[in-house]
Write a structure and sequence with these properties.
The chain contains six helices and nine strands, in the order E-E-E-H-H-E-H-H-E-E-H-E-E-E-H. By secondary structure, it is an alpha+beta fold.
Length: about 200
């Protein structure tokens, strides 16, 4: 049972009650045992929270909070399977920021990290909720467009991505213009498995 104390803190207890009968089998009295179970409940909650955090960290990039390579590959695999079931398509994009090394060398790695975070946020904001943006490593990003029916849908998405990347980014008081190289692979035209699609992209 969960009780709230006067201070608003939750108190968890295990309670058990036993009826004791007299010689004529009438209820005579009850013995109630109550054990404070709060610490065990708190420990369980902490373990669940830590497990959720571990799972999140295993599937997300620590810097940008975007999906990492592992989660990206899983999502591509799901999109392929969904495409098989409903005769749909998907697009896998791999994107590199042009001139990123020069920014790192000139402004430092902290500025480079801040730039990656901003780019990740922009890419995520430019796409649909169903799409996946991932940081694959360094300045390389992956984009999954599931359930794509026509190539012009991919073209429109790429144009949105290019526009959001080319919009100047403010970094350490400087206005930086970026460009990106984007490779595209379509399912099923360019491949029917994750490895092939990533390689083609």
């Amino acid at each position: 049972h969960r009780f709230l104390g006067r201070d608003g803190e939750a108190l968890w207890v295990d309670a058990s009650a036993s009826l004791v009968r007299d010689s004529e089998l009438r209820k005579s009295f009850a013995i109630v045992m109550i054990q404070d179970d709060t610490q065990r409940k708190q420990a369980e909650a902490a373990l669940v929270s830590q497990a959720e955090l571990n799972e999140y960290q295993a599937l997300h990039d620590a810097l940008t909070g975007l999906a990492n390579r592992t989660l990206f590959r899983e999502n591509v695999d799901h999109a392929i399977k969904a495409g098989c079931r409903n005769d749909g398509g998907a697009a896998v994009l791999v994107m590199d920021l042009d001139g990123f090394k020069e920014i790192n060398d000139t402004l430092g790695h902290q500025a480079g990290d801040e730039l990656l975070v901003q780019v990740g946020q922009r890419l995520h904001a430019a796409l649909r909720d169903a799409d996946t943006v991932a940081r694959l490593g360094g300045d390389e990003f992956g984009v999954l467009l599931p359930d794509v029916r026509r190539p012009d849908e991919v073209v429109l998405a790429v144009e949105r991505l290019q526009a959001t990347i080319e919009h100047p980014i403010e970094l350490q008081g400087l206005s930086l213009s970026l460009e990106a190289s984007i490779g595209i692979a379509l399912y099923p035209e360019d491949g029917t498995d994750v490895e092939t699609l990533l390689r083609c992209a």
